């Protein structure tokens, strides 16, 4: 079985609906993710925001490495 077939038929697939006006923040180093078909809402604008950085470090990490 190919890798794409294996992940598409996996029992570990989880579908998470994201309500209008909400967002989902995921860690790409931990989750393998995809998206279902997107249906645009006529009254809303869809934007992609990418935030790059280190979220797991404690505040003191930044203070000691300046």
From TrEMBL:
Gene Ontology molecular function, alphabetical: 2-oxoglutarate-dependent dioxygenase activity; iron ion binding; oxidoreductase activity, acting on paired donors, with incorporation or reduction of molecular oxygen, with 2-oxoglutarate as one donor, and the other dehydrogenated
Which Pfam family name is an example for this entry? CsiD
| Keywords, alphabetical | Dioxygenase, Iron, Metal-binding, Oxidoreductase
Q: Does the keyword Metal-binding apply?
A: yes
At the top level, the lineage of the source is Bacteria
Q: Does the keyword Endoplasmic reticulum apply?
A: no
Residue intervals passing through the bilayer: none
The name under which this protein is listed is Protein CsiD
């Amino acid at each position: 079985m190919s890798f794409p077939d294996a992940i598409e038929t996996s029992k570990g697939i989880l579908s998470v609906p994201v309500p209008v006006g909400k967002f989902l923040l995921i860690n790409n180093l931990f989750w393998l993710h995809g998206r279902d078909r997107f249906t645009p809402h006529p009254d809303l604008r869809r934007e992609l925001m990418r935030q790059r950085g280190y979220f797991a470090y404690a505040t003191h990490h930044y203070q000691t490495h300046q």
